[in-house]
Design a protein that fits this description.
With about 625 residues, this protein is α+β, with helices and mostly antiparallel strands. It has 20 helices and 35 strands.
C-alpha cells in the first residue's frame, strides 16, 4: 500500500485546524496557549480514512509568520498539500509563502480548500476563487481542484474528501528498498518506556528491533517499539506518521532537527553543492556572501551562500551554488531544502542538494563546477551517471552507493549501470558478488598511463622481461584506490599488455641482445660460475666503458633468478647461493650452531665473501644469529 501524508498550508486563522477537525474529528491544537490564542503554534497531527479506504496522516502546520520554522519542520514529508484559503479574506502573505515553500520542497500533488464559505455570498466566493486560481498559476496547484467548504456547517466536506482521495491516488509509490529515515519533530519520554521521537517516515521501512543511528551525532540506538496513529505496529513504512521508542539514548541527548535513520545511511556534512532557486516575486536578490537560514527536514542551521558561475540569482531564477553550514547536517543527495533571509526572516529560496560531499570551490574552477552542477540538476539519469562515474573514480562504488549519490532508486541505478557503455564492473576481476563500478574513461586513462610507464621502463631496462606487477600497481594507482588489484586486472584486460609470472610488459616487447651484448652476457654468467663462492666484485665488473650496459645486465640476470645480489659489493651465482645454504644445514647437523670460521672453511672462501653471505641469510630469515653463532631459523 502507498502510504502518504497530507499537509495543510495557508495563512494564520484561515481555518486549517477547524477543517481538519471537521474532516477527522481530531483537534490538532494540543497546547493550552494554542487553544487560548486560537492559532496553531506547534505541529498537529491527525489521521483520515479516505473514500477508497486508505488511511492517510495529516500534518497541521502553523500559519503565523512567526512559526514558519515549525511549519517547515512538518512540511518536509508532505506528499499531498491541502492549501487552505479563507473565503472572507482571500490570498494573504503566508498563503503565498507557504505555497512557495511547497514548490521548493518538490510537492507535486494538492487540493485547494476555500474555507469559511458560510461567511460570504456567491459573488464574493467567485471573485476569491478567481484570485486563488491566478495565484497558483505556474505552480503544481495550477490545475488542482478548488473546493468551497465550511467546517461550521459541513457544506463541501464530502466533495473535499472525494478530491483528496482522487489526488492521493496520483501520488507515486514510494521506494521502500531505501534505508529508513525519520526527521524528528517531537521528542518526549514515557514512564516505563524511555525516549520517544515522532516524525514522518520519509524513506524506507523500519521494524521493531532494528538498529538506528540518531544523526548528526547522538549515537546508536535500537528500535524498541513503533506506533502509527497511536497503535502498536511491528513495521512502519515511508509516508506514515510514526512514533519510535528508542532504547539506549536519553531524551536529553535528542532534539527536534535530529534524524533517526539506518546506520551509515546519511552523510554528515557542513558543505553542500546545491541547485538554488529564488522565490518568485521576492524583493531580494540572492548574492554570494549572504547569510541564510537553511531548513532541511526538521533541522534549521545557519549557512553562507556562494553562487557558482554567476554573481546574482534573481527572483524566479535558479543557479548552482555552494552552502557552507555553521553546524553539521545529516542529508543525502537529492534532498530538498528551503532558505530564509537572515534578518528579517522571510523565505527567499530553496532547492535540491546535489552533492553532500563536495570539495570547496574557488573562483578559478567556478565555471567547471557550475557546469557539473547544472548536469546534476537538469541532466538525464544517464548523463548524471556518466558525470558521477567521472567524478567518483577511483572510489569504486557499488550500485547502492551510486543510487544514493544520484538520488535514484537502486533498481533504476543498476539498470543504468548495466546499459551504460561508460560503466565497467569490477566483479569479474575481484570475485566479489556485490559489484563495484568505475568509469570506462578513467580506465582508458589508466591504460594510457600504464602503457607510458611500461614504455619508460622498457627504455631504461632493455634486458628486463617486464616491470614487477606490484611496482606497476603502486605507480599507476598509488594509495587512493580501494580495490587496486581488481582495477589493475581490469586495466590489463583492456589490451596492449602481456603478463608473465609476476611481470608485466607492453604487448610486443621482447628482450633483445645484439651479438656483442649476448657475448657479454654469456661472459658474465661464466665469470660468476667460475668464481663460485668468491665471485667477481661489482667495482671490477663496472670499471669498463660499457658499465651502464653491464649494470643493466646484472640487474636483469638478478630479476631472472640467475644471480643473487648478496651485498652492495657483489652478486653470486644463484646455484652457489643454494649450495651455501645446503652447506650451512650440513654443518649445523654435524656440529650444532655454526660459526663464521666454520662456514668460511666449508665453502673454501674468504671472510670477505662468507660474512656478507651469512648476513644475507639473516636478512632473508634463513638463519638466526645468537652472538657469534648461527642456526637455521
Amino acid at each position: 500500500m502507498n502510504h502518504l501524508i497530507i499537509g495543510t498550508a495557508g495563512h494564520v486563522d484561515h481555518g486549517k485546524t477547524c477543517l481538519i477537525k471537521a474532516l477527522t474529528g481530531i483537534d490538532t491544537d494540543r497546547l493550552e496557549e494554542e487553544k487560548r490564542r486560537g492559532i496553531t503554534i506547534e505541529l498537529g497531527f491527525a489521521s483520515i480514512v479516505l473514500d477508497d479506504g486508505r488511511q492517510a496522516g495529516i500534518v497541521d502546520v502553523p500559519g503565523h509568520e512567526k512559526f514558519i520554522r515549525n511549519m517547515l519542520a512538518g512540511a518536509g514529508g508532505i506528499d499531498l498539500a491541502l492549501l487552505v484559503v479563507a473565503a472572507d479574506e482571500g490570498v494573504m502573505p503566508q498563503t503565498r509563502e507557504h505555497l512557495e515553500i511547497l514548490c521548493l520542497l518538490g510537492v507535486h500533488h494538492g487540493v485547494v480548500a476555500l474555507t469559511k464559505t458560510d461567511l460570504v455570498d456567491a459573488e464574493w466566493l467567485e471573485l476569491v476563487t478567481e484570485d486563488v486560481r491566478g495565484e497558483v498559476k505556474g505552480t503544481f496547484l495550477e490545475n488542482a481542484p478548488i473546493v468551497p467548504v465550511s467546517a461550521r456547517t459541513g457544506e463541501g466536506l464530502a466533495a473535499l474528501r472525494a478530491e483528496l482521495t482522487r489526488a492521493a491516488a496520483a501520488v507515486e509509490e514510494k521506494d521502500l528498498s531505501r534505508p529508513f529515515r525519520l526527521p524528528v519533530d517531537r521528542v518526549f519520554s514515557v514512564d516505563g518506556f524511555g525516549t520517544v521521537v515522532t516524525g514522518t517516515l520519509t524513506e524506507g521501512s523500519v521494524r521493531t528491533g532494528d538498529e538506528a543511528f540518531v544523526y548528526p551525532d547522538c549515537g546508536r540506538a535500537k528500535v524498541r517499539n513503533l506506533q502509527v496513529h497511536g497503535k502498536d505496529v511491528e513495521e512502519a513504512f515511508a509516508g506514515q506518521r510514526v512514533a519510535i521508542n528508542l532504547a539506549g539514548l536519553k531524551k536529553e541527548k535528542l532534539d527536534r532537527g535530529d534524524t533517526v535513520a539506518a546506520p551509515d545511511s546519511l552523510e554528515v556534512t557542513q558543505l553542500l553543492d546545491v541547485w538554488l532557486t529564488a522565490v518568485r516575486g521576492s524583493a531580494r536578490r540572492l548574492e554570494s556572501g549572504l547569510r541564510l537560514h537553511l531548513y532541511h527536514g526538521s533541522r534549521a542551521v545557519l549557512c553562507r551562500l556562494t553562487l557558482l558561475g554567476q554573481d546574482v540569482c534573481a527572483p524566479g531564477e535558479g543557479a548552482p551554488a555552494q552552502l557552507r553550514l555553521d553546524e553539521p547536517l545529516a542529508c543525502r543527495n537529492g534532498d530538498r531544502f528551503v532558505v530564509r533571509f537572515y534578518s528579517p526572516l522571510e523565505t527567499v529560496g530553496g532547492g535540491v542538494i546535489l552533492d553532500a560531499r563536495p570539495r570547496p570551490h574557488h573562483r578559478k574552477d567556478a565555471a567547471a563546477a557550475a557546469a557539473a552542477l547544472d548536469c546534476k540538476a537538469h541532466g538525464s539519469p544517464a548523463d548524471k551517471l556518466a558525470l558521477a562515474l567521472r567524478e567518483q573514480s577511483p572510489r569504486c562504488l557499488t550500485a547502492a552507493q551510486y543510487a544514493a549519490l544520484l538520488g535514484l532508486g537502486e533498481a533504476e541505478t543498476r539498470a543504468l549501470l548495466a546499459d551504460c557503455g561508460g560503466a565497467v564492473s569490477l566483479a569479474p576481476f575481484s570475485g566479489e558478488k556485490e559489484a563495484a563500478w568505475v568509469g570506462a574513461d578513467w580506465l582508458d586513462a589508466l591504460k594510457a598511463r600504464g602503457e607510458a610507464l611500461l614504455d619508460e621502463y622498457h627504455a631504461a631496462n632493455p634486458f628486463f622481461a617486464g616491470m614487477p606487477r606490484d611496482e606497476l600497481r603502486a605507480k599507476l594507482l598509488g594509495d587512493g584506490c580501494p580495490a587496486p588489484e581488481a582495477v589493475l586486472r581490469c586495466v590489463l584486460a583492456r589490451g596492449g599488455f602481456a603478463e608473465e609470472k609476476e611481470l608485466v610488459r607492453r604487448e610486443g616487447f621482447r628482450v633483445y641482445y645484439t651479438q656483442a651484448q649476448q657475448k657479454q652476457r654469456d661472459a658474465l654468467l661464466s665469470a660468476f660460475e667460475a668464481g663460485g663462492f668468491s665471485p667477481p666484485e661489482n667495482d671490477a665488473l663496472l670499471s669498463g666503458a660499457d658499465r651502464e650496459t653491464v649494470r643493466q645486465m646484472l640487474r636483469a640476470l638478478c630479476a631472472e633468478g640467475r644471480i643473487v645480489l648478496v651485498s652492495p659489493q657483489f652478486y653470486m651465482d644463484a646455484a652457489f647461493v643454494a649450495r651455501a645454504k645446503a652447506a650451512f644445514a650440513a654443518l649445523q647437523a654435524e656440529k650444532g650452531p655454526v660459526s663464521l670460521a666454520d662456514f668460511r672453511d666449508a665453502l673454501g672462501t674468504s671472510r670477505k665473501f662468507a660474512l656478507p653471505l651469512l648476513e644475507y641469510f639473516d636478512r632473508k630469515g634463513v638463519t638466526l644469529r645468537k652472538g657469534d653463532l648461527r642456526t637455521l631459523a
